[in-house]
Structure formats: structure tokens, C-alpha cells
User: Fold these one by one.
Assistant:
Number 1:
Amino acid sequence: PEFTMIEIYQAYGDYETMMDLTEQIVVNALKAIGNSLIIPWGDAGDQIDLTPPWPRRKYADLFREHAGCDMSDAAAVAAVAKKFGIKTEGVHPDVIINEVFEKTVEDHLSGPVFVIDYPASICPLTKRKQSDPSIAERFELYIRGMELANAYTELNDPRLQEELFKTQLAGLAAEDSMAKMDHDFVKALKVGMPPAGGLGIGIDRLVMLLTNSHAIKDVIFFPLTRHEDQVPVDKKTGKEKTAQQEG
């Protein structure tokens, strides 16, 4: 099942260079299979124009446009969340905002479009913008409402990273916090990590796009998975049936 992924890190890069690289990877993949940069999507004559450069839209602007309120208006955000049945009690405001974003914005991201500058509180491994530390240098690539890539400027400040881990784990039971606090990672940052950009691209979803496939099972190697209690058993022998016996 999902997820086949390509993961890339570039020393002295950032989320801007990762956006450029993402465009290059997709465009070169299209050229490699002999496709033009305008590809078919669906059976109704729809087309996707992948000619770069692709638009870059700020998370906050898209939220305001489709949710109908500003992210900073807590009462209005709560009202929208209630309309969609999103839990708000005891939940961090930025988590609520992100759930509202998913409900109201993602289906409108026809794309290709880079959604940039996410709330920093939901991006604990991401570098903050110098001009506004509440914003993280992160992007996600959407095409036809489907997320294809996620990337950011890596946070390489060990003191801030350790502080963010502790903040993220506040209130958890000791055994949970010990399991999730990555001391080795923080130690490695203290030894020294250059500024870097990191990128992850969902290969299965990219193949869906390139082959005009609308179901993930059509492009993955082993689309059928079953729980152990669903495996057919021969009633006489008690042994698992083979594929030939099932047929």
C-alpha cells in the first residue's frame, strides 16, 4: 500500500530551492515518458497544465479566501469548525485552523500550486521565518486537490529544536514523552548541521498523475491487503487456501 516516497535533502538549500527542484523533477518525469507539459485528467476532456513556474499561494491567504474568515479570528474559526463537526475543546488553535483548512481549502486547490508559509506550531522540524517566527518555511504541492509533495527549510538550531520537542510533548505521560523525544537528533544538531532544505514526494501519487489514474490501487505493486482473520482457510485441513484454491 501507499507510501512509496522519494526523500531529498540539500545542504545550503531552503524551501524556495525545494520548490524549484520539485518543478524540475515533475517536468523531467513528463519529458522522460514523452508527454507534453499539458496532460489529460479524467475522461471528460479535463487537462492539467504543468508548465512552470507554478503559483505560490500563502496558507493564510487561501484560508481567508475559502474559510471566509481570518486565521487570527478565533471566534470565527471556531464557528467554521463547528459547522464541519471539528472538535475544538482542548485542541491547540493552530490544529483547529489546519483542520478547517483541510475541510474548506484543499478541494479548491486545482493546481499545480505550492501552498507556502504554514503556522509554525504545527511544523516542529521547520525553520521559522525571520520576519515572522509564527510562520514556518514550509510548502505542500497540490494538484487537483491531491497533495503530492511536502517540504521545508530544515530547522538546524539545536536549542530551539529541543525546546519545540519539549513543548510538543508537554502533558504526555512520561513513557510517551521519552519515546518521542529524539535526543540523538538534538545531539546531532549540536555537533553541527548546515542550513538545508528537505523534500518528500509521493511517488505513487505522482505516477497517478502521469498516467491519468484516479485510484491508488491502480499504480501500486500490491494493492490488495487483508487482515489475518480475513485470509481464507480450508475447513477440512485448517490450512490457508492458495490463490488457485480460492479461484
Number 2:
Amino acid sequence: MFTSILIFLFSVIVSAVLFKFGIATTPTLKLFAKRMLPAFTVVILLLGGNILYTLNAKNALQSVIDLPPVTDSTELATVQSGEPLVLVAIASPDNPIKGRNNEYLAYVDGNGLWTPLKILLDLEDTQIAMTNDNYRTRNWKRDNKINYINPGQRLTIVGRNLIGEVMTGDDKDKQINAIEGILVYAGSHNQFIQDTTRRLWGPRIMAGLSAFALGATVLGVIIAAVKIAMTKSA
């Protein structure tokens, strides 16, 4: 969203400067088309791209909200390998606690995320693993300046299903049911849905503002061109 806000502000500022100072230097339609139209075209393209960007972000959030939660092996079996899923599980007590002087299962501090390569997850009737260390975090507990999770924490994980993954290291050549984590949210599925639904407002608002600015810019260009043409005729 930060990128979208920057694009919007840049486009609005450039458009305002062009309307206030640029049009005054173009007394004829020929000069207007030569000097102003290329600049306004860039602004219009930026705003149009920003609308697509924010709508895509909104649709991505909505697609996650629409995914049914996976809580057991039967539901997991319906998700094909590589397909997205929302997994609701408990960070298993079988996980060894090795992070930061054996205090945390995984944590985020000023240096970024520290996590084991494999985190065991308990579903209602089976155990699987999350087998990557490059996921994003949200709503983790906070201890001083550290956000963390520990065994026993309920997690809602947005990720991809990995069927029959072959492990390496201590579990070399062992096939397990696993997921690739994209986002690890500390909390229940209902809490996750509420949080994600609130986040929909950001791209919705930015898409609306960008659409309004785009329409205002196009209308302003048309009005300016008409005024220049009428002035020349007079």
C-alpha cells in the first residue's frame, strides 16, 4: 500500500503543477498537444496502473478470505500439491525451542526473522510440517522488542500444500506432508478473517481515490483544450 500511496501523491502533485503552471505556457492547441499531452498521458497511465495495482491487492486479500480453513487430514487431502490453502493448526509441543538462547520457537527482532527450517504443526488428527524460512509474520506475541511464537500457539497459515515432500538434513529422504508458509498469523481463523477484512479498506480507498483523480485529470485536460480552442477562435 505504501507504493500505491506514493504513486497517487506523485501523480496528483504533477497533475496540479501542470494545470497551474504548464497550461499557461501553451496558448495554442498545437503547443498544448506537444508540451502538455505527453505529461498528462504519463499521469493518466500512472493513475490507471495504480487502480489496477490496488484492485489486484484487494482481490488477493479477498481470495485468501474466501479459502476454506483446513483443520484436519481429510480437508488437507482435498488440496492439490502447489495449491494455496489456509491452514489452522497448533505449533506442536514436539518442536524443539532453539531460538535466542532457547527461548522461542521463532521470533522477529531488529535483525529480521529467525525460524527453524521445519516447524511441526498439529492438525486435529495428524501432524505436518512447514518447511521454509522465508514467510511473513503477523500478530505474533511481543516480548520487549521481540515478536515471537512458541509451541502451543494457535496459528493460521496462508501457504501452499506440498504433498510427499522429501526432507533433507536429519530427515533426509523421508517423505512427509508439508506446507510452504507465506504468512503465519498468530491467532484463530476468525481473528485472521477479521484482520484481513479490515485490511481490504486500504486498497479499496486507494482504488477509489485513484479513479477520482484519473477522472478529474481527464476532464481537466478536455476542459483546458476546449478553453484554448475557444480563446484562439475569439
Number 3:
Amino acid sequence: MGKISMVMFDLSGTTVHDDTGVRDCLYQAAQEFNLKTTPEEILFHMGTNKIHLYQFLIAREMGKKIDIEDFEKIKDPETYDLAKKVFDRYQEIMLDYYRKQCKEVPGASDTFRWCHEHGIKVATDTGFHRVITDAIMEGLGWVRDGLVDLAVDVEHIPGQIGRPAPFMIFYAMTHLNIQSVHEVIKIGDTPADMLEGRNAGCRGVIGVLSGPRPVTDWGRYWHTHVIPSVADLPELIEKEFF
């Protein structure tokens, strides 16, 4: 196989510090609309399109069951309007959070620089929508400073189809002219990240321990490697992928 040409990095919990702040914002909005859930359940389903997460919770209260692997396969117009209202409130809470505190996971910027020094494109993807992604990128300056080549979110994809579908990875490959998934690594800290990488056929699907989700949540989904944090990625690539 050829060299690695692109790494698709998750944001919250992988490259952006998260000590359950995202979970708490999602949960607060759900509570305000009296949706039955727990912080632990929210945490497990993070990394997906947030509107679809709320649709899942609403559908369940209506007696429907949707598994995380099917989040982007099932369209449920019946739950959309309420889910969008909850989501809009969540975005208000989340934006306020990131405007007050947005910091990288230690070593993230250094890893991006290392990738560029070794001819590897740096892309990010996320379950966030555009306004949150933009707030993160503005706060950290990664796109402005040339550390991130492309920041992808669910709004780049027709129908806003997010993880675990592989389309954000394919979008980045198209725009960065990466022509083989065998040259791509996906790295993240959620079940949705692992499923996305598997569904895309990435050469490496790597889980990190730096996020708020326990490895028991995402570790049972197919992956190739586990590392403590994104700061350890250069060493792993040199050892396993060069």
C-alpha cells in the first residue's frame, strides 16, 4: 500500500478539548423540552448529526427504535419539527459555551504540523453543524493559520447526512484530491467515528482515549488502533503506516 495522504480528525474529544461540555449542552436542551434521556445516553450517541440525535429520542418516545448504525438510513419527517426546535436551542447553548472556552487537546496543532511536514493533508469532520464548526475554527485559528486544510461538517453533505455514513470523508477526499481510501486514516473518540471510518473503508480507524466517552462505548466497534491522544498519532503513523 502507498503512504498515508490524508487524516480525517474528529473535533470534540479528539482535537478539541471536551470534559463533557458538549454532552451537557445537548442534555440541557433535551431537558428543557422534556425529552427522556440520560447524560450517559447522550454521550454514547455523540458524533452524530445532532438533529438526528434528537429525532432518535423523540421517535423512541413514540415507540420507534432506531439503532445508531441506522441513524442516517432512516428518514422520519414526523419527528423533524420538534427535533429542530430542540436543536436550535442546543445551538444557542453550545455557541455560548464555545465562545467562552474553546481550547485544543494538547498536541493537536503539533500533530497537524507534523502531518504537513510529511505530505499528509489535514481534514476535520464533526457531528456539529456549520455555525458551531465555524465558532471552533475561529476560536482556534486552525483554518486561518493553515493547520487544517479542510473543515467539513454535516451541512457540506446533501441531506445533511452525517456519521456513521462515510460521506464527509469522501467529501474531503474529493476536495483534497485523495484518490484512495487506503491512503486515509480516520481518528476519533465515539462509536460514530469508528463506524464512519469502517464504512469509508479507511486504512486506519483509530480511537483516542482523550475524550469523555469511555473506551467501552466505542471500543466494541471495529477499529485498527487505540492511542492515548492525538499527540501520539505521528509516532503511530511512523511505526505502522510508513
Number 4:
Amino acid sequence: MADKLHIERLKERFKGKSTISSENLAIFYKESEPNVKETTINWRIYELVRMGILERISRGQFRIGQMKPYAPEPSRQLSKLYKDLSTHFPYIQLCIWETGWLNDLGQHLSNRSWLILETEKDACEPVFHKLQDNNKAVFLEPTLEMMERYVSIESNPIIVKAMVSEGPFQNSKGVNIPMLEKILVDLVCDTDIFYAYQGRELEYIWENAFSRYTVLQDKLLRYASRRRRKREISEYIKKLYNPAAI
């Protein structure tokens, strides 16, 4: 059975490719078996994914090997803040992360980290005031001017912003944090808040995210659609990872 999959030859053929289409795989198998059925090819692809030889990144798109999942561990400060707010506001959804995580992906290391706290739109004001009462350096949906003038001079500011529904989240040690797909889309969409991560730095972050970690393009594009930026982000992906496609 494994002989029919031609695993080693397949790895060698597609080594270094960022994406492999179903059509590429069909051509690969038809080179040695011109009359192989489409159903047989589909079954082989299924087996390769199940075995971890191929990784599915979107419909009809794959790449070699099992990539590392993006699962940053929340800091003690972040975990405490999340649990305190969850206790005080038990019926609202929260998502929390910090921009220091981007040091793993970006070109320029930053010694400052902004804590990004998302919650339901109607809960933003109560959460904001609760944090103010606790003497936190907290900002609600800051503009670019506020980011440059005030947020940037704080050592550990908290930014409260409205959560977009049906975003991709994950649980890490009891804390609801964004998946990598959400972070990448938000960096593109929220240019005021993430002004320091635009231009070439943004491209660098995306390139490293795709090369180092599993990025599920279906999930990423669904969230981009929720943010009404699907077409733009689809073109962005093509530009960065498949220049021949545009």
C-alpha cells in the first residue's frame, strides 16, 4: 500500500513548495500510472494527510509534513487579568493576547508589549471602566493619534477593542487566546492599533507565520470575510506565496 503512495519521491518532488494543489498531486501520480483513477488519487491524498505526510492548508491545497501549531503560552500577568475579568464578568466572552508574541515572527524585536483585550461590543465600556478602576493604563479603541501619543509611551498598556463574532480562538491553560489566523487578519485590518507592524514588517510576520507554523487558509479567509476583507487578504496571500497566480 505504501509503495503506491511513493512517499519519498513525493517528498523530493515537492520539497520547499509552500503549497501543493490536488492537480499537482494528480499529475505526480499519473506520471507513473497514466490510467490511475481520480478516486484512487483522492484516496491516496486522504491517506497522506492521515499519515501526516501532507498537511491540508485549505480546500485542495496541501504542503509537505506536519508543521508546528502556533500555541503561545500566556504570561502570568495575562492569565491573572483574564481570570480576574472572567470572574467579574462571568457572562461575556473575552479574548486576550499580547503583541510581544510577534517578536517570534517579526523582523524587529520590541521590548514593549501591548496587551490586546477583546470582548463583546456592549461589554467594552464596562470592561474598560473596570480596568480604569484598577489603575491600569487602559485605552478603549484607540485611534492612530492616541496610539502614537499615549499608548506608545506606556510600558504595558491594555487596549480594549470590540470582538468580531465567530473569530478563530483557542484555549491555552484556561485562557481564551486568538489563533494565528486571527492575529494575521487583525494585523491587516486594524492598522491604527497595529501601526508598528505595517509595511515590510507585516510581510515579514506573514512570511514567517506561513513558513514556521500551520496556517489554515480556510479558517483565515472565513475570518477575513467576517471582517469584510476577504478579497484583499486573498490577493495578499497570492502576492506573498504564489506570485505566478496574479
